What we know:
Radius of gyration: 21 Å
CATH superfamily of the largest domain: Metal-dependent hydrolases
CATH topology of the largest domain: TIM Barrel
Number of helices: 10
Shape: globular
Strand content: 25-35%
Helix content: 10-25%
Structural class: alpha/beta
Largest sheet: 9 strands, parallel
Number of strands: 22
Distance between the termini: 16 Å
Amino acid sequence: MNNQQIIINARLIGESQLQTIFIGNQEQIIDILPSHESSKIKSENILDLQGDWLSLGGVDLQINGALGLAFPDLEIQDFAKLDAICNFLWNQGIDGFCPTIVTTSIAKIQRSLTVLEEFIRHQSAGAATANILGVHLEGPFLNQEKRGAHPQQYLLDLTLDNLKKVIGKYQSIIKIITLAPELDPTFETIDYLKSQNIIISLGHSLATATQAAQAFDQGASMVTHAFNAMPSLHHRQPGLLGAAINNPQVFCGLIADGNHVCPTMMQILLKASDGDRGIFLVSDALSPIGLPDGVYPWDERTITVTNGTARLDNETLAGTTLPLLVGVQNLVKWGICKPETAIAMATNSPRKAIAMSETILGKKAHLLRWSWNKKKSNLSWSRICSS
């Protein structure tokens, strides 16, 4: 046991006492004990976290590209670029992500799915890189009045026939699909997606609270970027978001860059949701993430990135280029929630949303250490891996 790697005095999400983490020969976390039960254990390889938080890396369920490559533009020769993106995201504290394909032609969607299917097949589980967890299709079944930056010419009616044409043979790699439920009053498309084990997220929608509640009852379990591309909360018309907040089984994605949603509304959302229950952070980052501010191509248009915020020429908000964990730091810096809650919203909560285990026990010891400077309201993180 003298050579066993041990992390002591670690603060884990949901635990009131400091913990000791034991790492086995295969870099796997083999045991966790309260620190007072393991204080006499000796080892030549001890890391003392001195009360800092320890978590799994982040999971980003909505990211549209990186390093200049948009996921709807994937070509078979882009494997090296995808590798570079996975490594870049790993260095940004991300363990896994869902490449998001926004509304475009069926041909382009399926070309990208072909590339991602092949890439996923060759992923190395447990490697020190961000893994693709499945694809997020954000469209093309969106309400045109809430399409945002999605091109209108590629929007499709939400019918079972259209849905099957878009999905094609790629059911196994599609993890999430965002759709507007009011486009299919029969809900047969939701029934079909549920039968294929694809998570249904409601978004870019004008659904009433009643329509949204019916969709949740039918099997939808998520909301795409809460507040954005949907009616505002209203005291007589709570809408899609009101129905989601009122349903403890529904998870809501949130962009915490300060531009997509006002910090005050983030605070209201968290209070209405009993803290972090059901709320997870997404980056919604566009392809220029990892690149400097500037003007970049985006489908047949261009976007201008200023201070990490991307807009079309008509000033429509298109997305961000800020990494997921910046959202965690923002929530704490703005005083919206405690560090533990903010960390969970980027690590545990998105895992729960896709029925992925959020415990560190049994996982590779590829972890994040979070240090909190209360005086400066500064939360910083670093990646720690067993050697």
